[in-house]
# Entry
Amino acid sequence: MADNVYEKYGLNDAVPRHVAVIMDGNGRWAKKRGMNRSMGHRAGMERIRGLITLSDRLKIEVLTLYAFSTENWKRTAAEVGLLFDLIVEYFIREIDELCENNVRIRVLGDIAPLPQKSRDALNAAIERTKANTGLILNLAINYGARAELTRAVNALLSENVQSAEFDDIASRLYTGGLPEVDLLIRTGGEKRLSNFLLLQAAYAELLFTDDLFPDFDEDRYAFCIKEFQQRNRRYGGV
Ligand code: FPP
# Structure
């Protein structure tokens, strides 16, 4: 079937190679409806499918989603537990379809402190999709850019490196080998990066939207890609 998704959204084929999303606003979405925060996270989880589908159809190479930051441990144990449970549930439900769609799962972050069943679900998904050649889906889980940089520097030190180029550091980040972020979207109205992909997004176009993440559907995502295509990227040149 011919895919006229570009036409539908008025896009050209100069799509970002790598899109990163800070999925913010789940709690406020739930509160507005008199629901508890966990229902907001669940509603957020339901939006991930649309982001993957549209990224795939537009031939975006990498989609990185911020699912849990190194700072999110400050939330209640119940909320942290719920978020990890949702990850397990997500993969149980979606892994077959992700595989059929040739999606490759990767994780950015240190998952060692996660509950065993969440680690098992993540490792199984990584293993099962490792030969896939379509969209790369990075889930940033227990991720923080400062911890990531520290880990990369320690890796270099353990190799007894006397001096390093930036590429030596970049290749030791969780995103080693992947293209830099072209478009970074934050939903939920806040205008900050919150320790997300600080080095990889050095030249990214930043887009902040007031949509709460559970409202961020395919159409809203496409609108962001369109906005990206209207930006003039100069990378420090004129
Ligand atoms: C921020 O909203 C969102 C998170 C901390 C978690 C994002 C997680 C999901 C969308 C579901 C995860 C599922 C998978 C499979 C990766 P917030 O709670 O900070 O919202 P608020 O600012 O309105 O309180």
